[in-house]
Amino acid sequence: xxxxxxxxxxxxxxxxxxxxxxxxxxxxxxxxxxxxxxxxxxxxxxxxxxxxxxxxxxxxxxxxxxxxxxxxxxxxxxxxxxxxxxxxxxxxxxxxxxxxxxxxxxxxxxxxxxxxxxxxxxxxxxxxxxxxxxxxxxxxxxxxxxxxxxxxxxxxxxxxxxxxxxxxxxxxxxxxxxxxxxxxxxxxxxxxxxxxxxxxxxxxxxxxxxxxxxxxxxxxxxxxxxxxxxxxxxxxxxxxxxxxxxxxxxxxxxxxxxxxxxxxxxxxxxxxxxxxxxxxxxxxxxxxxxxxxxxxxxxxxxxxxxxxxxxxxxxxxxxxxxxxxxxxxxxxxxxxxxxxxxxxxxxxxxxxxxxxxxxxxxxxxxxxxxxxxxxxxxxxxxxxxxxxxxxxxxxxxxxxxxxxxxxxxxxxxxxxxxxxxxxxxxxxxxxxxxxxxxxxxxxxxxxxxxxxxxxxxxxxxxxxxxxxxxxxxxxxxxxxxxxxxxxxxxxxxxxxxxxxxxxxxxxxxxx
Length: 511
Hints:
The chain is built from 14 helices and 23 strands. The chain is about 25% helix and about 35% strand.
């Protein structure tokens, strides 16, 4: 149900959310104060169930300056993307009269989607007062981030041909910061009956040489985790056999069997999978634990007149995170003049370049520091603000050019597209040649097309300028390509059309 009356809309984005299959999960949003609703304070609640359901609730806080009771209409919906616009799913509308420190009945939304470990979900709640209108629309943007820990390693079993059945081989032991064992990952060979299609029955146990591979995970924590396992071939690449992708709830031991991998088959294909009689398995583990960040990031109020829009200052999330206790930064970005603390989980989730650095044995992972010598400190700061908040301010074209370079270097495609939009609006006679060189260097067809169109529209002013003459001298191929593409775009299609159009028939005069 949609109201024409003004409303307060809350978008609560939850990052690194994970839906456990075997346990309930409860999350609450940061508390937010709504001035246009009698200065009452609220928070959203989300409850994930082992079945395909999500329950949402709205709670009024005990301490606020509002009346003892306030009646609201409210509507819940889910936006399972990183974008706050677009169509929402599973809308449900309700009404309730709230006392202080009271929650409304839980609203169940079914059809729960599946998310990857770095996925996000946005819970949207719209609120209207029951008996009266509010003076202006309000928009609240909240964010909660779940802490993730990633561990990638290669476990090896030497002398695999002599590895006996039922003997345990520990591939990895994961410790807490205090040295306590959080998890151990072990490998066994397991004797299992094999199904015989010829006799339509199960055969007896295998001899000791014909055993399945079994993975056992012993754990003590209470978190959710993803585990992926791959058998590596002789070249160190992931093979198609034995691939495992599972999600579990921690707190109890789990075991699983690689049914399509048998010892005798691996020995038969030793040249492929057992170089020097060594079996190698790559494990990729991600643990999801407690909240590492939650904040009301911005509040916007608006009326029917655009001139009356009032927007609060956007929280500088970068400075907030570097100062906030309880959220330790585990890496640093070191420029020539400044050093910025950061979180490897956030950098890796947004940039495949950072992910490769921290997931491998590169010096950035060992030294917990990334040296950046080709990007200035101010640009690195802008890049980090975007990674943490998704925010990019309006920039001068030179600053946008520097940020564009950083976005391309670290493969931040969304940031790169924003920089292209800023640069496209900034093209003029003084910088068009520089931007043409930039687009060509980064093989950016979109930016190059914008610059070429501008040059075509201002041909004489540019093609006879000293800048263009310098381009022809130092980058002759780029100048040639411009005229070739101009010919192919404007001249050639017209000529082809004329050649394909039949000539008009001659009309003889009648006597």
